[in-house]
Amino acid sequence: MAKPITAFTCTACGASHRKWAGRCDACGAWNTIIEEAPLSQGPGRGLGTLKGKQIPLSGLATQEAPPPRAISGIAELDRVLGGGLVPGSALLVGGDPGIGKSTLLLQAAAAFARSGQQAIYISGEEASAQVRLRAQRLGLGDAPVRLGAETALRDILTTLDTERPDVAIIDSIQTLWSDRIEAAPGSVAQVRASAHELVTFAKRRGTSVILVGHVTKEGQIAGPRVVEHMVDTVLYFEGERGHQFRILRAHKNRFGPADEIGVFEMTGGGLAEVANPSALFLSERGEPSAGSAVFAGIEGTRPVLTEVQALVAPSTLASPRRTVVGLDSGRVSTILAVLEARCAIPFAGLDVFLNVAGGMRVNEPAADLAIAAALLSAREDVALPAEAVLFGEISLSGALRPVAQAENRLKEAQKLGFSRAILPAATKVEGVAGMRIDRIADLTGFVGETFGAG
Question: Where along the chain is ATP bound (predicted)?
């Protein structure tokens, strides 16, 4: 077994020596050389005997002011970013092809440029003329945005280092290539290397870098997941092509709340921000109809009311269909099982279709009660009260569990004209006057009170 190698280090200047000596050759001090164990004895050579410099440490208490933010003027975008764009931050924006990523970021670049920030837009997928045509169509032809079309990472970094912009948008990360890596653009190695160099540049020069990423058919950003760990913020652009609404959701944000959303409407002149998404999602509600329930949810820090729609019809198939849009299909299957096991309401032989109106996606467990209400309403062909909103989590025993931020949900519902709320019995609600509160202990009690005996 090899004998572990030791090092001799001067305590005065930190210089390393092969053997002990009375006097340090680097600083000339006497009796300052001591014997130390190597820094690493792992497989191979490890870190060797050479030591690094000690880093300064500090406590958790700080007097530093929060980082300054650049405000774009697009309120929904600033909300998702946590109050604006932090200098030196790196963002990754993903979404389906054609969902509006390039349109939104071109509008954002123009907004930052008009607010006094120097903005550069580098396109790797389109020629400069195509980007100019889009800018003219959006009414942004006069915005002082610097435009370039390039895919070579070395040329892009050289340009950014020379221009020193405040905001740099790279569209997209999958088109870049580094001449030091023998792989095709879009490969794992190229994407990882390009993202690392751009994030390092952002931290070193104080430029806010926004990267556009393609998504796979599963909806995840293509390429290695380490890219999402490198950047400070990960935004997903969601929405159905058949709907005019687009949701910008923060899945990760080191400078603000995660799961915050910004709502936009796709128009002929680009993406228009929606200040009150609850009113927009409920704007097409007409007379009360069976299978419709209004859910009071929380997205990030804002309450949002959405309509859960259900259709239950006899099935001609051996295995009835379960089609779910905008909700977690596993959660819906669990609710159907609880209704059958705890409330003796069978759905065997029935096709079940569930949808969230407006193209919104709801992932909260608090939507369980609204989903169950919509299913029961569609099955029994009985409309729920038009003035009522619902929220609550359903456990496997059929009990209703309280959810967080109940008062904010009720205040948003009251603002839109709803006067009744159906919620779990253990929910603590204070300060919501003029609203009827129906407290339900379990799902069986809800079925009996709302739909009779079931």
Answer: 95-102
How far from 381 is each of 69, 158, 291, 310, CA to CA, in Å?
A: 52, 66, 7, 11
Do 92 and 227 form a contact (C-beta atoms < 8 A)?
Answer: yes
Ligand-binding annotation for 97, yes or no, is yes
Q: Do the annotations mark residue 44 as ligand-binding?
A: no
Evaluate if residue 453 carries a pLDDT over 90: no
CA–CA distance, 164 with 204 (Å, rounded to integer): 11
Q: Report the pLDDT averaged over residues 61-81.
A: 86
Helix ranges (DSSP H) in 170-252: 188-205, 226-230
pLDDT at 372: 96
CA distance 16 to 29: 13
Residues 404 and 407: their CA atoms lie apart, in Å, by 9
Task: Consult the annotation and say whether 99 binds a ligand.
Answer: yes
Q: Give the pLDDT of residue 239.
A: 78
User: What burial letters (b/e) apply to 253-270, b meaning 16+ CB within 10 Å?
Assistant: bebbeebbbbbbbbeeeb
Gap between the Cα atoms of 353 and 67, Å rounded: 47
**Which positions ≥6 away from 67 have C-beta within 8 Å?**
86, 87, 255
Annotated binding-site residue? 95: yes
Q: The pTM is what? A: 0.79
Q: What are the phi and psi torsion angles at 196 (to 5°)?
A: -60, -45
- Report the Cα–Cα distance between both ends of the chain, in Å, rounded: 78
Q: Which runs of consecutive H residues, i.e. helices, occur in 362-442?
A: 368-380, 406-415
Residue 100, annotated as binding a ligand: yes
Question: Is 98 annotated as a binding-site member?
Answer: yes
- Within 13 A of 26's CA, how many CA atoms are on the CB side? 12
Task: Tell the residue number behind the tokens 């096709």, with chain if given.
Answer: 351
